[in-house]
Design goal:
- It is found in: Secreted.
- The chain is an alpha/beta fold.
- It is 39% helix and 12% strand.
- The chain folds into 2 domains: 59 residues; 298 residues, Alpha/Beta hydrolase fold, catalytic domain (Rossmann fold, 3-Layer(aba) Sandwich), CATH 3.40.50.1820.
- The chain has a 7-stranded parallel beta sheet, sandwiched between helices.
- The termini are far apart.
């Protein structure tokens, strides 16, 4: 009887989680379609005499690549999981139009569900140009093509140590940038003499720097952080993504793409038997583990972080979001009104997370209570600065005016009251706070044009 009750409770939770994700996906998709239809209607009813010049200019610019020359350094906004860059989902902006605040901003479109490694490689070639090279050893190990999309011209081909870049990453995008910087330091791109100094600053906005307990609720196994439970939300997601990629409908994939083209899962390539293998979990990214969720578990983040450094010549700043509070010693959602309706149950769930007793804790000294504060997708402890397996040098910021000038090699972090999607997609929802946040980020980037001549080195724990 007890097992039956637990099974019913689990299925109910799965149904609710699936409904929440489907609703949110529909919300994003319908917002994009509505924006496109609105633009079409505006163009139709606008007198041609006023519209001819703008339309001609738009058509002329469709094939052009944005290339910045000179100073100041460009700012690159990197989206998170299920995210999208400029050109996807019609006219919808993942960063809710924040890119319009500065003339030298790039918003790359990376794989929305591909692994941190693969997205970091894509980001490099998006900027420098050429054909994406995922690495021979990595590609062979995970069973996909070594080469991917071709950028005829990079969006910032002059990128080097003398022409560095500011990066702003939301959610998993922050970890993508950190992995990219480590690849630059390791000279991991054949034919390029790279270094960590190609990155001038990294700003993490609700960044997944240490993983999240959300992954276990959605279906990752707490025991290893790699495999999925047999029945879970991620299994439903897996089936949907496989069918989407197998059908390979070009206009639909141009509108939104999960980023698995280098796995070549389309029906023309695999046929019906290939679809069966994919669905059974014998082939593809979900079988090999080369996708985003294993990288976002606590164990997966520790594996990544063990090879990532905080560099002495790079500026680091992090905004950690939080929508919880303490009440009679119990962590609960901070309010009903301040949390997006689709995230409220997720905030409540994450407050109650307890690591299974039959599974080994992800690191020595792990405590459930440290991971209770969250924003509905990530735990606040994960967003402040790299902590596990080794804590990197950091400085808590309560008042921005009291932490100037910033020193490179140190993670400055600030905790703000917001949920995980407060500063993306819907600008009106964030209101004045939206402008305060992004104006502050861009102004800080513009002040960090030159590195300090006497940088403060991080302590040995960051090495």
């Amino acid at each position: 009887m007890a097992r039956l009750s637990i099974g019913i409770l689990g299925l109910t939770e799965l149904f609710v989680s699936a409904a929440v994700h489907i609703l949110f996906g529909f919300y994003i998709f319908s917002t994009a379609v509505a924006s496109d239809l609105s633009q079409v209607m505006t163009d139709c009813f606008r007198p041609n005499v006023f519209n001819l010049g703008a339309r001609a200019k738009e058509e002329e610019g469709k094939g052009q690549v944005v290339v910045f020359q000179g100073s100041p350094p460009p700012i690159v906004l990197v989206h998170g999981i299920f995210g999208f860059g400029k050109g996807r989902l019609g006219g919808l902006s993942y960063f809710a139009g924040a890119e319009k605040k500065d003339e030298r901003v790039l918003v790359p479109d990376l794989g929305s569900l591909t692994s941190i490694h693969d997205r970091a490689r894509e980001l490099f070639y998006y900027l420098k140009g050429g054909q994406v090279d995922y690495g021979e050893e990595h590609s062979r190990h995970f069973g996909h093509s070594q080469f991917g999309k071709i950028y005829e011209q990079g969006h910032y081909p002059s990128w080097d140590e003398d022409n560095p870049i500011h990066f702003v990453g939301h959610s998993a995008g922050a970890q993508v940038v950190r992995v990219l910087q480590q690849m630059l330091a390791d000279k991991a791109f054949r034919g390029y003499d790279t270094s960590e100094d190609w990155v001038l600053s990294i700003t993490s906005l609700s960044g997944a720097l240490n993983g999240t307990t959300r992954t276990y609720y959605d279906g990752m196994q707490p025991g290893d952080g790699r495999s999925m439970k047999s029945i879970c939300l991620l299994q439903l997601c897996r089936l949907g993504v496989i069918l989407y990629d197998w059908l390979d409908i070009s206009w639909l994939k141009n509108y939104y793409n999960f980023g698995f083209d280098h796995f070549q899962m389309g029906w023309r390539r695999t046929g019906l038997s290939g679809l069966v293998d994919l669905l059974l979990g014998n082939t593809g990214p979900f079988a090999s583990g080369d996708w985003i969720l294993p990288d976002l578990t606590i164990q997966g983040s520790i594996r990544l972080n063990s090879g990532l450094r905080t560099f002495p010549n790079t500026f680091y700043f992090s905004y950690a979001t939080k929508r919880t509070r303490k009440f009679l010693g119990i962590t609960i959602p901070s309010s009903m009104l301040g949390i997006h309706p689709l995230l409220f149950l997720r905030v409540l769930q994450m407050c109650q997370w307890r690591f299974p007793r039959n599974a080994s804790p992800p690191y020595k000294g792990y405590r459930d209570e440290d991971w209770e504060d969250n924003d509905g997708a990530l735990n606040t402890i994960s967003m402040t600065h790299p902590r596990f397996p080794i804590e990197h040098p950091s400085c808590f910021v309560e008042d921005d005016s009291k932490c100037h000038p910033l020193q490179p090699g140190i993670w400055y972090y600030k905790i703000i009251k917001a949920d995980h999607i407060f500063f993306i997609v819907n600008r009106e929802r964030a209101g004045v706070q939206f402008d305060l946040l992004y104006d502050g980020i861009f102004q800080r980037c513009r002040k960090q044009i030159l590195r300090s001549s006497t940088p403060i080195l991080p302590n040995e724990s960051s090495q």
